Amino acid sequence: MNDQAPWTSNHPFDVEEPVMLITGGGRHRVGSVIAKYFAARNYALALHYHSSEEEAIEGREELQNNGARCEIFKADVTSEDEVSQMVQAVYEKFGRIDALVTTASIWSPTPWGKVTAEDLRKNFDVNTLGTFLCAKAAGEVMVQQPTGGAIVTFGDSSINRPYLDFAPYFISKGAIPTLTQVLAVELADRNPNVRVNCIHPGPVMLPPNTDEEKASRIRELTLLKTADRPEMVAQAVEAFVNNVFMTGVCIPVDAGKHMHCPAERRRP
Predict the structure, then answer these.
(1) What pLDDT score was predicted for residue 4?
(2) What are phi and psi of 251, to 5 degrees?
(3) Of the candidates 188, 151, 156, 182, which has an alpha carbon nearest to the alpha carbon of residue 169?
(4) Which domain holds residue 57?
(5) In a domain, 5, yes or no
(6) How far is it, in rounded angstroms, from Cα 133 to Cα 138?
(7) At 152, which CATH number?
(8) Dmax of the chain from CA atoms?
(9) What is the pLDDT of residue 212?
(10) Residue 210, pLDDT score
(11) DSSP 8-class letter at 121
């Protein structure tokens, strides 16, 4: 790589097989799609899981059977000690961490009349604190590497136009843009080759068993009238990982949903 112009390389790191840690990557959701995408680009994968051990094992076996280096790591992202141990285990296994993608989150409806302080704490602990703890721990590894690293956080494209029944979730995700900029400033001060950016996904992967009527309604909430395209998120992650001239940036990947304003603030 070193004898090439940086924009002709597949990635900005100084190894043939960079290492990516994906929180929430053990579940069969967006994180696992990102893992498959980067495995095809010769990345070694560290997949985090908390309670989805069976899915994580299946994901690891699938990637390994396709020739990728992949291991799984268990941690509660709300625990500073467990996150630290996970990152240390990843570093000991692979010898470096080039990219971190924080897809681990919780998302469930809570009707307004039933929202409690505990609901807010639970969402904040996983979605906000969990993102911070993982990024801080991985960032401390990256600042020691000459080529630094890339962190991609996950917010939500609807944080500025929230819909009904998800107040705790949106409050927790609304902090992610500021968190991303704080991390970008702090880590670049320690190593200017460490970059932190944010993706605001929209309806990129529909919940299992979504019927066609609901899927059609979700598509209609976007400008491009499309949904359920998780590979588009993987491409956006790749752009952030490879672009060494971007940090502290948040982009929506939502088929224009963040600009589309239906008459009513209906549920998704």
Answers:
(1) 44
(2) -130, 140
(3) 156
(4) 16-254
(5) no
(6) 9
(7) 3.40.50.720
(8) 61
(9) 95
(10) 93
(11) H
Rounded CA separation 52/37 (Å): 21
* Distances, alpha carbon 243 to alpha carbons 150, 181, 195, 256, in Å: 9, 17, 9, 23
265, part of any domain: no
- Closest of 105, 179, 107, 94 to residue 145, by C-alpha: 94
Q: Which residues contact 38 (CB under 8 A, 6 or more apart)?
A: 20, 45, 99, 234, 237, 238
Q: Which of 142, 157, 118 is nearest to 196 (CA)?
A: 142
- Report the pLDDT value the prediction gives residue 268, as an integer from 0 to 100: 60
- Please state, as a whole number, how many other Cβ atoms lie within 10 Å of the Cβ of residue 162: 16
CB atoms within 10 A of CB 154: 25
Bridge partners, 250 (sequence order): 198
Q: Cα(first)–Cα(last) distance of the chain, in Å? A: 45
Asked if residue 37 belongs to a domain, the reply is yes
Residue-wise pLDDT tens digits, 10-31: 789 989 999 999 999 998 999 9
Domain count, the chain: 1
Residues whose CB falls within 8 Å of the CB of residue 165, separated by 6 or more in sequence, listed in order = 109, 110, 111, 112, 267
Question: pLDDT value at position 62?
Answer: 96
Q: Give the HSE-up count for residue 116: Cα atoms under 13 Å, Cβ half-sphere.
A: 4
pLDDT of residue 9: 55
Residue numbers of the chain with a pLDDT score lower than 50: 1-8, 263-264
> Which among 119, 22, 115 is positioned nearest to 71, based on CA atoms?
22
Q: 137: Cβ–Cβ under 8 A, 6 or more apart, which residues?
A: 83, 84, 86, 87
Q: Are 173 and 127 in contact (CB under 8 A)?
A: yes
